[in-house]
Amino acid sequence: MRNPTLEECEATARAKRAWSLMDDNEKAAVRIGMLPHWTVLEGLGSRGDPTRIDHAWPALHGRGTHRLFAVAMFDCAKRDGGMIC
Predict the structure, then answer these.
(1) Tell me: the pLDDT tens digits for 14-61?
(2) Triad 18, 34, 83: Cα angle to 5°
(3) Cα torsion at 20, 3, 60, 12 (round to 10°)?
(4) Where are the strands (E) in the chain, listed by range?
């Protein structure tokens, strides 16, 4: 097993925080393969808490970072009840 890269670790941390801020409808959307737009914005959009690390996350740019984040979000969904295929 290989060690995860820094980018993968950042995507996982961002996904876990975003998952904790989502309501049930947004979690259902992730389970079918869609990501809420606010999750890729700087500081997690308007849902980020400025007293936490949320404000330090930059907006996602580029295919690679979006792909890593999407995979991390789908992993969160898989751990919390599964994906709908």
Answers:
(1) 999 999 999 999 999 999 999 999 999 988 887 767 777 666 788 999
(2) 85
(3) 0
(4) none
CB 74 within 8 A of CB 80: no
Residue 23 carries which DSSP code?
Answer: -
Quick check: 73 and 17 in contact, CB under 8 A? Answer: no
pTM of the model: 0.87
Lookup: tokens for 13: 């941390």
Copy the structure tokens of residue 55: 């404000």
For the chain, the farthest-separated pair of C-alpha atoms sits apart, in whole angstroms, at: 37
Cβ 32 vs Cβ 84: under 8 Å: yes
